């Protein structure tokens, strides 16, 4: 409850910021995406993990304004990057269920001048499992304007395959616990990664291995067919200069 109260004021107090973490190509060098990650620097507690404050934001109906700020801020940053670097932004189910989300994305793109083709929305399996006609329509509209989707944290949750059939993802991100298991020799995890890679190739999806902390893990995941990599080995999330400013969720 205390955190919720503080989170209500965090945007206008300038406590929210965005960090970016690279996703690199098969060569382990070329940055193909930067993932935007929300950060909350609490005046007394210091950094509060998104694992803690995102669920609070969702419960308190604050994820809308926070997510909108992050999207606008991240688009403004990304427009200064090289044209071949995409921006990925995490979106939660509540954001996608809001009727104004399409407008929010369109406005963030227009205000920043970022090409829609450079924006990738990361969503988790649980969202897709709640897919209904309205959500399908929203996803189609976003796809039509050029925005694409990544399936985040694959392997963490329910891992049923039917959601992959329901929508087109440009990327599947294999969760770091799964990467850990597969790269440390679990034959079952390796077999599952191989199957996902095969599926991804036939459906034109890139497979990213998350949570790479050592070159040996990248080598193991590359051998299984992953072609993009993310993790501390390549770069931790790095804070950008943009911060919320007093009285404004806009920049
Ligand atoms: O930054 P960190 O790796 O600790 O992120 C923890 C979790 O918080 C991840 O699951 C990540 O996807 C989520 N997260 C980070 N930033 C955002 C955001 O802007 N919106 C949403 N919905 N989730 C985020
Ligand atoms: O560092 P490198 O040259 O590989 O980065 C590729 C592109 O991504 C460049 O355009 C660079 O400006 C941008 N970039 C790399 N890391 C970050 C980051 O942490 N934040 C921001 N805003 N841009 C980054
Ligand atoms: O759910 P999502 O994949 O968006 O979560 C990203 C989270 O993973 C962020 O909190 C980020 O700080 C964290 N992260 C990124 N790279 C690594 C890594 O190599 N190892 C570990 N343990 N965490 C990582
Ligand atoms: Na993510
Ligand atoms: Mn993830």
From TrEMBL:
Domain EAL: from-to ranges = 1-251
What superkingdom heads the lineage?
A: Bacteria
Record's protein name: EAL domain-containing protein
Species annotation: Erythrobacter crassostreae
């Amino acid at each position: 409850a205390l955190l919720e109260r503080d989170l209500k004021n965090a945007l206008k107090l300038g406590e929210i910021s965005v960090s970016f973490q690279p996703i690199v190509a098969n060569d382990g060098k070329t940055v193909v995406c930067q993932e935007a990650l929300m950060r909350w620097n609490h005046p007394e507690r210091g950094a509060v993990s998104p694992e803690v404050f995102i669920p609070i934001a969702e419960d308190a109906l604050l994820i809308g304004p926070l997510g909108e700020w992050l999207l606008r801020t991240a688009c403004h940053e990304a427009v200064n990057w090289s044209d071949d670097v995409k921006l990925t932004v995490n979106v939660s189910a509540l954001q996608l269920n809001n009727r104004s989300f399409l407008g929010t994305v369109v406005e963030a793109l227009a205000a920043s001048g970022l090409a829609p083709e450079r924006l990738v929305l990361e969503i988790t399996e649980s969202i897709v499992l709640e897919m209904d006609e309205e959500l399908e329509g929203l996803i189609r509209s976003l796809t039509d304007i050029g925005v694409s989707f990544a399936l985040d944290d694959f392997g963490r949750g329910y891992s049923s395959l039917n959601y992959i059939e329901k929508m087109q993802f440009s990327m599947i991100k294999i969760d770091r616990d799964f990467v850990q298991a597969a790269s440390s020799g679990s034959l079952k995890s390796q077999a599952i990664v191989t199957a996902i890679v095969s599926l991804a190739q036939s459906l034109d999806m890139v497979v990213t291995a998350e949570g790479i902390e050592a070159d040996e893990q990248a080598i193991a995941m590359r051998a299984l067919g992953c072609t993009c990599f993310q993790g501390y080995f390549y770069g931790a999330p790095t804070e950008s200069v943009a911060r919320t400013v007093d009285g404004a969720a806009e920049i």
